[in-house]
Write a structure and sequence with these properties.
alpha+beta; Ubiquitin-like (UB roll); DNA polymerase, domain 1; 5-stranded mixed β-sheet; two-stranded antiparallel sheet; 6 helices; 7 strands; 13% strand; elongated; metal-binding; signal
Length: 223
């Protein structure tokens, strides 16, 4: 049986009537939504109390530097951001590259891994404090002589680390490649590379760095 005659016919008039009806419904819904008052804004969360500042006096390159700092401030950030000694570089900020190496009481450390407030009264030496006025430190002069740098970003950490390393060798600290602790050993390439392995040079100037340290290291050291 053919029911095509009974099916509603889609005419231009029916389409226009449907559109007008839909617009009226949507307009009413929009006016109703606009009339609804907005939900109450939740009260603002109470601001967290500021971390109290701590007084600390850092003795850097022979000069006392009194500071008021957040106790979470690293020694590196205190040196760079608060004191303005930007020679120590922030490389990885995870103690993996050695660019931030400074000397604390004669020992080389990664300044990014220690808090400034831990070093009250310590003697801190940065790359800015190695030279004696206009006279370069022997390691600085050796790095220039042997072209032990390219971009120079890692150089302050390399030099500070080398200064600490040479003192460690003179004090009798062996490395993992030292074969005989009873013999007088020279700072061979293998010794220098092992002892400086915590300092990365992304320019790969290692041969010249080793040559500079060997030159500045002087005669053989008794371990």
């Amino acid at each position: 049986m053919d029911n095509s005659d009974s099916a509603p016919r889609l005419t231009r008039r029916s389409v226009l009537e449907s559109g007008v009806a839909a617009a009226a419904v949507l307009g009413f819904a929009g006016r109703a939504q606009a009339a609804t008052p907005p939900a109450a804004t939740p009260p603002a969360l109470a601001a967290e109390p500021a971390t109290p500042r701590m007084p600390v006096t850092l003795r850097v390159n022979g000069q006392a530097r009194p500071l008021e700092i957040d106790p979470r401030t690293t020694l590196l950030d205190a040196l760079r951001e608060r004191i303005g000694l930007t020679g120590s570089k922030k490389g990885c900020d995870h103690g993996q590259c050695g660019a931030c190496t400074v000397l604390v009481n004669g020992r080389r450390i990664n300044a990014c891994l220690t808090l400034a407030v831990m070093h009250e009264g310590d003697e801190i030496k940065t790359i800015e404090g190695l030279a004696d006025g206009d006279h370069l430190h022997p390691l600085q002069a050796a790095f220039v002589k042997h072209d032990g740098f390219q971009c120079g970003y890692c150089t302050p950490g390399q030099i500070c680390s080398a200064a600490g390393m040479l003192d460690e060798a003179k004090a009798g600290w062996p490395s993992t490649v030292t074969k005989d602790l009873t013999e007088t050993v020279a700072l061979t390439d293998a010794e220098i590379r092992e002892r400086m392995s915590g300092n990365i040079c992304r320019c790969a100037a290692y041969p010249n760095i080793v040559a500079a340290i060997r030159d500045a290291g002087g005669p053989a050291t008794r371990l």
